Amino acid sequence: MEKYTTQILRAGVAKSNITTDAPGTVVNDPLYAKALVIDDGNTRVVIIAMDAVAIGCIGDIKDDFLPKLRTRIQNELGIDGRNVLVNASHTHPPGRLLCDDEEQVSRTFDAVSRALLNMTEVKIGVGVGLEDRIMINRTLKMKNGLGWTIRHANPCPPDNEVEGVGRVDPEIGIIRIDKLDGKPLAVVYNFACHPLLGVPKGTITANYPGFASNVIEENLGDGVMALFLQGAGGDITEVLYKDNDRPRDSEPAGTMLGLSALKALHDIKTENVELKVVSETVDFPRRTDVPQQVELLLQEQAELLASLRFTSLNFRTFLPLYIKYSLNPEYPMDYSYHYVQSEQIGNTDLEAMDKVNKANIEKYLSNIRAMERLARIQDKIATLKLHKAFNDESGEDTIKAEIMGIKIGDCVLISCPTEALVEVGLNVKNASPYKHTFMAAYSNGYMHYGPPAEDYNKGGYEVTECFLAPEWQQIYEQTAAEIIRKL
Known about the structure:
The protein is α+β, with helices and mostly antiparallel strands. It folds into 2 domains: 10-286 and 396-486, no CATH class; 290-394, no CATH class. The protein is 36% helix and 24% strand. It has an 8-stranded mixed sheet with strand order 4-3-2-1-5-10-11-12. It has a 4-stranded mixed sheet with strand order 14-15-16-18, covered by helices on one side. It has a 3-stranded antiparallel sheet with strand order 8-7-9, with no helix packed on it. Helix 1 packs parallel to helix 2 (101-117), helix 3 (207-220) packs across helix 4 (251-265) and helix 5 runs antiparallel to helix 8. The radius of gyration is 27 Å and the shape is elongated.
């Protein structure tokens, strides 16, 4: 292994286009693997930001990508593979996004190799920005104490059943890397989001992290590279995610995020810093409660199906009645003078018919609400069974998880291999003694959602799309705290 003898802080950056070139592919904006190599004379660290869904398990990147990449970096470049952090932005366009498997490794390695060749003396500074306008916690807090997640796969809940929304993490963690002449070489920015919105034509896109990086790079110029590191955004979505009144376009949100990062960047002072890396491997327990959860959902499904009985209207008769009774709830059947006249002569036929119609309308509306819940239940049952099959196929009670900490001056970057939810990220930040602690979730592997233990009985999507047992959270947070202490 190469020994570093100089005490000079150096860094280099490079990127490779990793977009698929499959025939018929329409690319709105290219996807990249961006590499940053930092060396303080004793420790050499590689940070790779990829426009991808995940590092393994789902999407285009397979489970063997990370070990293959690290092996090449260690064998051919002399950099300890344990000092390589690979983060996925979690961009979500449909279909194949990336080049083929071997090209992914080759092109990403090439970016690291060129970054190493481009090393120059630098100074580094750390700071934070703020952006709270573009995202929302997508798991709504319901008045019954449960959670209902905003998704296109199921309807939103009735407005009168929603109590509130959960927290977001509006902090933009920023690592500024300047050349000795004061000109920026690279900007690493960390933000908890969920890039789902896409672009109007539904084509391949890096989503708003890609647009934000373009804003940063174009404004700073001189070949500056912006590397986006995804944060604890498992339960975050765009404010306009379910908006049906305008085209689905993530560029405005990306522009706002990029400008907010730039605003904070100018106040960050750079200096010489030291690097340190600590990595631990732990065992997360796999969940075993899926049969019980499915049984509860089947019971709810049976109750909802039973509630559909005794329905008089169909959609053809419901809609005109609903419109008529909405236009004039007081006198829905006819002009008001007919009601007055009927009252004068003691005729109650109109009121009697109104009572029947209102009951039928309410029954039909109740059926619609039941249908919305049934659609959600079907999705939850199928998802739970999928993760049970995944755990059963493994034949193991646990899964190995890598947690990596990188100290850059007074900043700590801590990784997580799950789609960690906001509360988990905030817990780690709040427990850290360092001035700046940033979580790079979706890093060095992928284990689907990482919800807080207290969420498991609340029924949100993230605890359904999850194969880890609730105890994972305590193991993760304790290990993260130990790593931060060692740093």
